[in-house]
Records
---
Amino acid sequence: MLRACKTWSTPVVEEKRAAVPCDLCGSASFASSLACEGFSYVRCRRCSLTQVNPQPASESVARRYGDDYLAYEIANEESFLRLQLLGLSDAGFWRLERDLMARGRPPRVLDVGCATGALLERLRDRGWIVVGAEISPSARYARETRGLDVRGAALEDCAFPGGGFDAALASHLIEHLNRPRAFVREIMHVLAPGGHFLVTTPNIDGFQARLFGPKWRAAIFDHLYLFSKRTLRALLESEGFEVLGIRTWGGLAAGTAPSSLKTLADKAAKTLGIGDVMLVKARKPG
């Protein structure tokens, strides 16, 4: 029997909220979407972006990521790093690395929402100049334990100069943000012409989301937006990015089905492009 499971999230609490227009298309017309335990999502009638609306204030969102979040990231950093490396490999990141290294200077990478800095440390060891941004106590942890340059602020508050990075990464971040469009716009600003942006997020059009509905593991209190391949592509392209490819993976989560069924579901979901998680590879023109 299939069983639904949720990923980790902060507890549902009462927060002051305000209605906002859809961050993708600007519409103010929404339909009910997912009714979860203690909170719910709506779907934009114009562009279909699924979102929490009314939205909590950004200050309330930031308070969710405290010491409990740091403990969660430390406990899971090895498995998270393994999944990130697999995703980057699937997206052709190491070919990009080879091409950038061939220019004769170390390439620069920005990891936004870098958590404990495990991925940045790995990239530093491979010859990259690495910088991170992280609003949680993980920023301090990454600086103190790994000696990394990680700014303890949201990307928009870091004031990075324009055109300073050859690549930008955002793994399981964009769904947590109040203003994903502003985030994508700032990524465009900090990337050098021809720079690459790799963004990983849950896929609301995936098999698991359709199977479990409001019990889907990514339909959690901390996720303010749930993107499909179409809505995330639309957001990136509307800010000037060229989308180079979209890969998905994950058919059934561990613990939701017998291992033999999970193996078959994972293979089918990846082949059909209906995986639970998607990675979009995009490029800044130039």
Note: The longest strand covers residues 191-202.
---
Amino acid sequence: MTRTDAHTADAAAIAAYWSTQPQSYASEEHGGTTFRAGDGALISVERRSPEYFREADRVLFEWNQPCHNEAGPFGRIFPYARYRGRPVLEVGCGQGGMAALWAERGAQLTAVDLNPDAIAATRERFSQRGLPGEIRQVDARSLPFDDGSFEYAYSWGVLHHSPDLARSVGELMRVIRPGGEFGVMLYNRHSLLYWYQILYLEGLLHAEGKFLNRLQLASRYTDGDRQEGNPHTWPVTVGEMRDLFRPYSARLDVRVLGTDIVPILELAMPGLTKLVPRIVWKAWARRWGWSVWIAGERR
């Protein structure tokens, strides 16, 4: 099998996995339709119903509360107002939650994803809410758009699933006009979650490291870890992100988003966050959180 054939096979497996295990943010199982409310009650909904999208958004927004402001969810990182009425691209739209935020705020939104479930879900969400936008099934490694087609492009928690990350990043940057902007979130390999949950807990204590290499461990014990089967997830480091984006960028801003840090600390050492001053664990979150956000201007 050639390198190209291997990548094609990987892409097919990735599309198949995410079609059957969509990122619904369900509480009980990855890809499910049962959510846990704030009072602890379980809420079961029909997939792609208005209630399903509402619950998925609620969980996503709660997980990322520090990213929000008066401009709306993720207003601290997304420059909505600057791109009202202008062409914006999302690579990896999932269930359409972020795409809808941009469309509601007036962007000329194009959303793409590798798997057909994501396309069907996002189209259904947009139809229910009467939102405009172009939604297409596309491989991020080969975007069907001319150079400089978009003024802003972003991807949230998706491209670390690409079997050829450098090529996917190159394609995303190719379709942004010079002077346009971008934002990409990838998982952080230099994080407490990776070190504790993946390498220590699963790799060492559960002895999975005897049978799986680090890529296989990361794929198996990140998204969908309770169902297994995730074919490809490889977190990056901050340095690797800078190296990937620097050749295309006039400026770069890299931030670690550590909204996961308290649950991981509680898992590792119950009660620790009550003993450690808030300012301390917030500093840890900014250094060893699970998500890295890189934003900048296209050269």
Note: The mean pLDDT is 94.
---
Amino acid sequence: MLTYAIKRIFGAIPTLFIIITLAFFLMRLAPGGPFDTERRLPPEIAKNIAAAYDLDKPVYQQYLIYLGRLVHGDFGPSYKIRDFTVSQLIANGFPVSMKLGLLAITLAFAVGTTLGVIAALKQNRPPDYSVMTLAMIGITIPSFVTAPLLQLVFGIYGVHLFGLDLSLPVGGWQGGAPQNLILPVVVLALGPIAVIARLTRGSMVEVLRSNFIRTARAKGLSTWRIIVHHALRAGLLPLVSYLGPAIADIVSGSLVVEQIFGLPGIGRYFVQAALNRDYTLVLGVTIFYAALIIALNLAADLLYGVLDPRVRYE
């Protein structure tokens, strides 16, 4: 397994190189620049700024300079956020994005697997149809639609139930206060809940028809024990392959959610940097996300081999 992991890591280097190259030149092809403003700068000042950030050199030279810095782990300074390097901004924003992502994927896994198991046990009956209908709705509605709706219902109008005020903040971080986390975590979790429920349902239906489940039932084991101790381990294997990319997708999918809820995560920095043509910050976040997705995919593959003894890494 160690040899397989090392090969995957070295195999990821060309992928990262291609991502860096594409992101670098695509940013340069986009109209506008990091120091373009409505008020035109005097030529002397514009020339000095371009020289300070190597923007006066040909694009291929800028690319080689950037690669040289990357080799030493230097993402460069932010062009628009003064007195901060890209590494500092990522270090400040990543804990926020990671906290949101981990809470969302935990909620999605717990709710999604529960709904999927219920649908599998009640196959082709009203509970099954209800779960699959809700899952389809959850897959089709994007987060930039559900987020404003939840803000409107729970924040602007407010919800009162049994004399309790269930109103929630529509934005802000407040040091990660629980009431500020509920809405963004729920918005991020809705899509994965739907996917996990469908995957679990399909896999559990197949597992429940397997010979070893029939044998367990013939031995007189309870339905609860059959599901928990026998069916779930086999039924959740397809989720392992999904969870790696899903975690990365939730963290990167928080780009929109962080912007809507005003959270100080990497996603908010990325959106602002793209709008302001902050080349180094966009590139740094893109590279960071790419490395994260590659690492999580590798972790999912290795975990799959641990859970399924039939898998061998030669």
Note: The mean pLDDT is 83.
---
Amino acid sequence: MSGLLSTPGGDPVTSSELQPVLDENDALRLLLTGELDLEGRLADASNTTLRAVVSLDGVTRRCVYKPIRGERPLWDFPDGTLASREVAAFLVSRASGWDLVPPTVLRDGPLGPGACQLWIDQPEHAEPLVGFVPAGSLPPRWFRVAAARDDDGTPYALAHADDPRLARLAVLDAVLNNADRKGCHVLYGPDDRIYGVDHGVCFHVENKLRTVLWGWSRHPLPPDAREMLTRLAEQLAGPLGEALGEHLTTAEVAATARRVARLLGTNRFPTPSNEWPAIPWPPI
């Protein structure tokens, strides 16, 4: 994550590459009950998004804190809060067993209640998985998603890697009905995993899928997706559905179950709609 406007002096947290990876339950406990100290605001976020340090019992990590009071109202998401949708996305990710969303909780903070998510530090030399490439030089095993030109008229292609980690994220986005999967919302973790972040505009009852990961459109789902989706369907009828009910409307939870059933029925990645822009802006 980047785009920090400013930070106070000092650096209370060493690089996450030098710190042991937290167990998920320990991370959730830290995020939920640790002391939050604000460091700065992310300049490129449309809603108030703050970087903070969270500390508990000698354990210190960075996190992203998104207070509800800093959310801008969205006409097409009138119910609930963006923060609640962030937490709901984590709950679905955790239930999937794929763990593609960093640990996220809803808690009180310096600016009131909001979503608090573990910060992901990306390795300095991580190769991008999504981006604009020269139109005639698509890397091997990359999918072309859309055509583009720069200010000088030079042709480029919006593209992404044919990477199984990205494919999993595309399946999760189809379940979440993610309306804003930009390239910058795909992060490399120091453990060679990828993570998806910024899920405030997910779970709409209408099809709102907007993503840069359309390369697998109409392709069969990954071999392990059916087992994951079956597990989600079972949990949505039980504990996961109940947990989501604390953050989403009843209709939104039911729509999530229908999307899972549809994916199980087709066993294929969804296709872009012709009724609205299928790629978010900006895409990267």
Note: Residues 130-266 form one domain.
